[in-house]
């Protein structure tokens, strides 16, 4: 058995935070093994101009991780379950799911809570589900599809490109940014 276990992860701040959390848990329960992180750039990371629905196929954030697993470059990959395709390639397994900190969605806004936003306020989300729910709740808001890591999405609010963004609560909590959550 190999003594050094290589954990693959995308290179975003959130992805690395998640991978480091898993690495820490593995070290604690396997003190006789060594662990290291390997950053892997995916098609979804490289091509930020195309919207995700226009990119070829599924798994644009995992294909390179899967290839690295299959060719032995990494021993395991840490990735958000929401980005995994429903069919896992032959030879790979979903080995574990870590506990989610908080299942809710949150709003980060410059203008207050969701109910207080002015009609026509521009709210960004990278999720079709969130866009549908938001439109059902507040049809008077302008819901915009956005891409990018969490830093990019928050920057769109601070630069006034958007009035707010809907994100996963867990992402903000993992990064220690609970104080930036509006609701």
Condensed summary:
The protein is of the alpha/beta class and 183 residues long. It is built from six helices and seven strands; from the N terminus they run βαβααβββαβαβα.
Summarize the structure in words.
By secondary structure, the chain is an alpha/beta fold. It has 2 domains: 4-83, D-Maltodextrin-Binding Protein, domain 2, CATH 3.40.190.10; 105-180, Periplasmic binding protein-like II (D-Maltodextrin-Binding Protein, domain 2, 3-Layer(aba) Sandwich). The chain is 30% helix and 17% strand. The protein has 6 helices and 7 strands, in the order βαβααβββαβαβα. The strands form 2 sheets. A 4-stranded mixed β-sheet has the order 4-7-5-6, sandwiched between helices. It has a 3-stranded parallel β-sheet with strand order 2-1-3, sandwiched between helices.
List keywords for this structure.
hydroxymethylbilane synthase activity; EC 2.5.1.61; 183 residues; 30% helix; D-Maltodextrin-Binding Protein, domain 2; alpha/beta; transferase; Porphobilin_deaminase_N; four-stranded mixed sheet
- Roughly how much helix do the residues carry, as a percent range? 25-40%
**CATH domain class name of the largest domain:** Alpha Beta
Mean pLDDT: 88
Strand order of the largest sheet: 4-7-5-6
The counted number of beta strands is 7
Biggest β-sheet description: 4 strands, mixed
> How widely separated are the two ends?
47 Å
Uncertain spans, ≥5 residues at pLDDT below 50? none
Strand content: 15-25%
């Amino acid at each position: 058995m190999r003594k050094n276990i290589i954990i693959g992860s995308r290179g975003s701040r959130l992805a690395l935070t998640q991978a480091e959390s898993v690495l820490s848990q593995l070290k604690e329960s396997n003190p006789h093994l060594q662990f290291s992180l390997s950053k892997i750039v995916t098609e979804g990371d490289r091509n930020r101009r195309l919207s995700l629905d226009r990119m070829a196929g599924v798994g644009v954030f995992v294909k390179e991780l899967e290839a690295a697993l299959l060719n032995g470059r990494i021993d395991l990959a840490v990735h958000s379950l929401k980005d995994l395709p429903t069919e896992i390639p032959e030879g790979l397994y979903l080995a574990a799911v870590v506990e989610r900190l908080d299942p809710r969605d949150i709003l980060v806004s410059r203008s207050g809570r969701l109910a207080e936003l002015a009609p026509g306020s521009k709210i960004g989300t990278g999720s079709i589900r969130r866009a549908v729910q938001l439109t059902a709740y507040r049809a008077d808001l302008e819901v915009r599809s956005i891409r990018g890591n969490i830093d990019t999405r928050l920057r769109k609010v601070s630069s006034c490109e958007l009035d707010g963004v809907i994100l996963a609560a867990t992402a903000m909590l993992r990064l220690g940014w609970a104080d930036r959550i509006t609701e």
